[in-house]
Write a structure and sequence with these properties.
By secondary structure, the protein is of the alpha/beta class. The protein contains 8 helices and 7 strands, in the order ααβααβααββαββαβ. It is 35% helix and 16% strand. Bound molecules: zinc ion (ZN) (2 copies).
Length: 231
């Protein structure tokens, strides 16, 4: 009988046995070498995910209702491959360089800030063996120390995956998919940095912004690893 191993879990073992190699050039000993990281930095696209207009400051003049948005780049090429390997091949070591890239594009934080990872579906956390957004949030909080912490303030109320569904369905699903955690305390003076790996329709982010605002948060920043497009 043929063994069927889900390819989202099998490469874990491969990566444990093999030394890390750069996802861009293959250099051994690192998952992302400095030269390839620089390549991603120089290909940085500071655009609003909604209207695609440039937004170096993170604030979009066409979409004033949205909090400031900071994105590393489009989910394609090297950055797309890295996010794919991190999510679907469970290469945890990619969390650090992804957090470093995100850190580069976020504004310096002089006042208290809380990084809030968007909660991942339990099933996906189990199959990866870790919560991929939470791990980046932890690295990012260290990089932004001493004013910054990361806290899982949001929880999922259902475990419906959004992959492959259309825009209207995604928005409907996201509206009821999240809630504030019962243990959450809000500092009205702090900036809350909502962190996610990909912006497709923005439905999840919109739902989470609303929940945080209802809980008393006034200052929100959006931090996204990548922008994607629905086919
Ligand atoms: Zn490289
Ligand atoms: Zn915009």
């Amino acid at each position: 009988m043929q063994n069927i191993v889900k390819n989202t879990t099998f490469p874990n073992l491969f990566d444990l046995l093999m030394p890390h190699s750069c996802r861009g050039c293959g250099q051994i000993g690192t998952v992302l070498c400095e030269r390839c990281k620089l390549y991603i930095k120089t290909n940085h696209q500071a655009v609003c995910p909604h209207c695609k207009s440039p937004t170096e400051s993170g604030k979009c003049s066409n979409c004033p209702a949205l909090p400031p948005i900071y994105v590393i780049g489009e989910r394609s090429g090297l950055l797309g491959n890295i996010v794919h390997d991190y999510k679907y091949k469970s290469i945890r070591a990619l969390a650090r360089p992804l957090a470093e890239l995100m850190h580069e594009f976020l504004p310096p934080q002089d006042t208290p800030a809380v990084i809030v990872p968007l909660p991942t579906i339990d099933k996906h956390v189990r199959s990866r063996g870790f919560d991929h957004i939470k791990l980046i949030a932890k690295h990012l909080a260290k990089l932004k120390a001493p004013n910054c912490t990361s806290r899982q303030l949001l929880i999922r109320t259902n475990n419906t995956t959004q992959v492959g569904t259309d825009r209207a369905t995604r928005i409907l699903q996201a509206t009821n998919a999240y809630n504030i955690a019962s243990y959450a305390t809000i500092d009205p003076q702090a900036t809350y940095i909502l962190l996610d790996d990909v912006w497709t329709t923005g439905a999840s982010m919109h739902a989470c912004i609303k929940i945080l605002q209802q809980a008393g948060v006034s200052k929100i920043i959006l931090a996204l690893l990548t922008l994607s497009r629905l086919d």
